[in-house]
Write a structure and sequence with these properties.
single chain; mainly alpha; three-stranded mixed sheet; elongated; three-stranded antiparallel sheet; 516 residues; 6 strands
């Protein structure tokens, strides 16, 4: 019991003595678990002059990215940048280093400036093509400068020295501004390359490509040493710009919905009737590259109008595609072909009515393959309906009776010259022919061919046309053209047209050439 009391007294004395001395407390803060970064040694002095020492591995802080929150130089609060962050990681050089297999020099050239931000370069294909042209331009510029024993780096340093001589800002900020001026020089070169790619790819929106320094001596020096040589190099190497791939084309056509007109104009200017399939293939290639273009239907409407002068079926086919895409658009315009074009496409009202039914069905069903299949029937030859005329039949029967009587008469008499008999029968039974417009002044061959058309329901196969012309010892094309030329003034159109395996005459036109 005595020992226990003595122990308590000793503890009280020791505690009392400790309260009279200044105390230094050392604590170690635990490392944060999420990011295993080294601890920072910080010493804070309080009014009672006691010290809290946070021990750990010391680290030199990068103050270049800090910002002061107070104008008092004795009290500054810094916010350190996130450790591990590198601003160059998001510049073009580092972004495309692996993808484009860039060299260290190429990476450095692309990291000279912050990534340009616009809708054109937001399309990766556009950005990559601009990068390729930019690097090729700088390589050529280095070759150009090497002739005068200089390099891009030397010329940039010379320009920066010149700018420093005209610099009116605080010397404290020169280091920062110097980096910005250098970045702008390379950025201007990049923008001029971008401008060339835009033009080559039919992207008409322009961008500024001038160096922005307002000092005239600096501008002259920049253009002399860098700007003008770059422009000359670009004129020589822009032919190396590749065509955009399908994905890039689709995105460009979304940004510029009328961009298709550039290729369409090229197709129409290079059109040759004998190679019209090239035009047709070109239009369907445009369709493929404009699938996401909200104005895709206009490609087919314009194509229908253009090809109508050369191919009726393709004109109607393109118009069906126009309706197909117009139905998918936000607004169904349902534009109609002009009356003049309709007249050239349809030789009679029945064909026009038939095509209008196909379009009507397409609008209801939206079935494109069915509409295209139905189109095959529009220009198929249609035989005329035969209406029997009883009175005419009786007349023919009477004529046949006269023929029989005539033959009996000849047979009862002495044998006569057979050719004479045949000739007399042919004369008496010569088919009734139409009398044509007297001002035409048609010759026998022209009248004979028109009569042959009339006997064959205004539809004459190639074989029968050839047989007729051979029997008359006349060239087929010459005979057809002569008839068309004679009738053109009255019809304001050709009379005889060539179809698939046959020649044909419009019933309306045939009626017009008859002598009323």
């Amino acid at each position: 019991m005595v020992l226990f009391v003595l122990a308590i007294i000793v503890i009280i004395i020791i505690a009392a003595s400790n309260q009279k001395k200044p105390q230094t407390v050392t604590k170690t803060l635990a490392k944060p678990k999420p990011t295993p970064e080294p601890n920072i040694r910080v010493t804070i002095t309080k009014k009672d002059e006691s010290i809290i020492d946070v021990s750990g591995q010391s680290q030199k802080l990068d103050t270049s990215s800090y910002q002061s929150n107070s104008t008092n130089s004795n009290t500054q609060y810094y916010q350190p940048q996130y450790q591990g962050y590198n601003q160059n990681d998001y510049r073009l050089g580092n972004v495309y280093k692996s993808k484009l297999l860039l060299s260290a020099q190429e990476v450095s050239w692309l990291n000279k400036f912050w990534n340009p931000n616009n809708v054109f370069l937001s399309i990766e294909g556009c950005c990559i093509e601009t990068i390729k042209l930019y690097l090729a331009t700088l390589k050529e510029l280095n070759k150009h400068l090497k002739k005068s024993e200089s390099t891009i780096a030397k010329e940039v340093e010379t320009l920066l020295s010149l700018i420093k001589g005209t610099y009116t800002g605080s010397t404290t900020y020169w280091s920062y501004d110097k980096e910005n001026y250098e970045a702008e020089m390379f950025s201007v070169i990049f923008k001029r390359c971008e401008s060339q790619v835009r033009e080559a790819w039919g992207h008409k929106r322009k961008i500024a490509t001038d160096f922005s320094n307002s000092n005239s001596s600096v501008l002259i020096a920049f253009n002399t040493k860098i700007g003008n040589p770059v422009d000359a190099i670009l004129k020589e190497i822009t032919g190396s710009i590749s065509n955009p791939d399908l994905k890039t084309e689709e995105q460009l056509n979304i940004q510029n919905t009328s961009r298709w007109k550039i290729k369409f104009d090229q197709l129409t200017k290079s059109f040759v009737d004998s190679k019209k399939q090239d035009f047709i293939d070109g239009i369907f290639e445009l369709e493929k590259r404009n699938q996401k273009n909200p104005n895709i239907e206009n490609i087919f409407f314009e194509s229908s109008k253009f090809i109508s002068k050369f191919d009726k079926k393709e004109a109607l086919k393109f118009y069906i595609y126009y309706i197909h895409y117009d139905l998918k658009s936000t607004t169904f315009d349902n534009k109609q072909l002009t009356k003049t074009i309709q007249k050239s496409l349809f030789k009679n009202p029945e064909e026009l009515i038939g095509f209008e039914k196909i379009i009507s069905d397409l609008i209801k069903t939206k079935n494109l393959p069915l509409a295209l299949d139905s189109l095959k029937q529009i220009y198929e030859p249609k035989r005329k309906k035969i209406n029997l005329d009883v009175s005419a039949i009786k007349i023919v029967q009477a004529q046949d009776k006269n023929t029989v009587d005539l033959l009996s008469e000849y047979l009862e008499d002495e044998p006569a010259n057979q050719e004479e008999i045949a000739l007399r029968i042919e004369v008496e039974h010569q088919p009734q022919t139409h009398r044509y417009f007297k001002d035409f002044k048609l010759n026998d061959n022209q009248i004979g061919l028109l009569n042959l058309f009339n006997e064959n329901d205004l539809n004459l196969p190639f074989s029968e046309m050839d047989t007729f012309c051979k029997s008359k010892s006349i060239f087929k094309n010459q005979l057809i053209e002569s008839i068309n030329e004679v009738c053109y003034d009255k019809l304001d159109d050709v009379l005889i047209e060539e179809g698939d395996g046959h020649y044909e005459i419009s019933e309306i036109y045939f009626t017009k050439i008859l002598d009323q």
